[in-house]
Amino acid sequence: MRIEEVESTTRSQRIATHTHIKGLGLGEDGEPIADAVAGGFVGQDQAREACGLVVDMIRAKKMAGRALLLAGAPGTGKTALALGIARELGSKVPFCPMVGSEVYSAEVKKTEVLMENFRRAIGLRIKENKEVYEGEVTEITPEESASSGYGKVLNFVVVGLKTVKGTKQLKLDPTIYDSILKEKVQVGDVIYIEANSGSVKRVGRCDAYATEFDLEAEEYVPLPKGDVHKKKEIVQDITLHDLDSANARPQGGQDIMSVMGQMMKQKKTEITEKLRVEVNKVVNRYIDQGVAELVPGVLFVDEVHMLDIECFTYLNRALESSLAPIVVFATNRGMCDIRGTDMASPHGVPVDLLDRLVIIRTLPYTPQEIVQILALRAQVEQIEIEEGALSFLSDLGNESSLRHAVQLLTPSQVISATKDRTKVEKDDIEEANLLFSDAKRSAKVLQEQSDKYIV
User: Fold this and answer.
1) Does the pTM exceed 0.85?
2) How many angstroms separate the Cα of 241 from the Cα of each of 108, 113, 232, 262?
């Protein structure tokens, strides 16, 4: 038998375009950190500071129904800023990214796609106080009746629960025993049973058994404090779209048509306005009772110039709704036609919608900033590169584009590896640059050899 060491997979995860972005890189005073690389961000100090103010307004719930436009040339960090906002807000605030061209679906109306994403970006935090029986399982004894013609019948099950304060024996219904079996509960596990619904949840193994085995893939939890029977606050985070979907397609039914409907892949269906109004009424009632809290999230619409005049008209109305998220648009266009019309407008957005927007400009990167970004990307992609090679690559990025320079990093590493070198040198980047053309060089070739291409 051969035993091999299994390598950890934590470092070998896929590296995406914006993997290095960890936040906006701002200090406690809201000013950009003077450090060269902060939160994975290089440069764009004014834009980062403005986005920091937006994050503070979102946290204070003072920006719901407002919109923000990130405008700048391609490759100046607009998507990175939106991701930085998402990282700063944390996982508890809904962040829904989409691209302008997503609205053109064959199955669903454009306005429906927009409204779905609007609802995905609005969270609802529901707090419930539930009566539970919680503790470490000391015994599970099923009590069966005397044998009948069809075998033994389960009457009830006795479960013993122990906490720091004391122990209690519970006589439970046979249906709860089924839940106990499904959760694979054993003596020594920590569980809680809801008093109202009878649902059983296994929390983990009691830490008193932590030294039972040398190697164990079990999660150990401490023995619960207080009484076995107690009130516990349970917090659940959902979005309004989750509520819409749950009510639009209720599951259930034992007849053959219901079962077949659940098995078959369902076609995407529109959620009616009437249903959304009913869901809103229930949500507002929960908020008034103090049971739930509304969490306005962020809807990020990249390439906003791809939307047409119908979508922009709909957005004007949707932004005025009482249940509206914070909308962040991004575009790299200057003066261009509004899609669906022959009217030219700044960024391809109608003037009446532009009036509602707070606009943040992103500026082109300086040569020094390009060097810092390339060094950061090389570090994230675990590529060793010489100083001279890095300087040459930044010059290429200055001439063509930052994106092209970043894309040359990995091919240069592969070329370097074929020459049995661990560090990327200048000649590796020169070779990669000859093999892969940038957009400007490609356009020049097309212009010079236009007679050889089909027009």
Assistant:
1) no
2) 15, 11, 27, 20
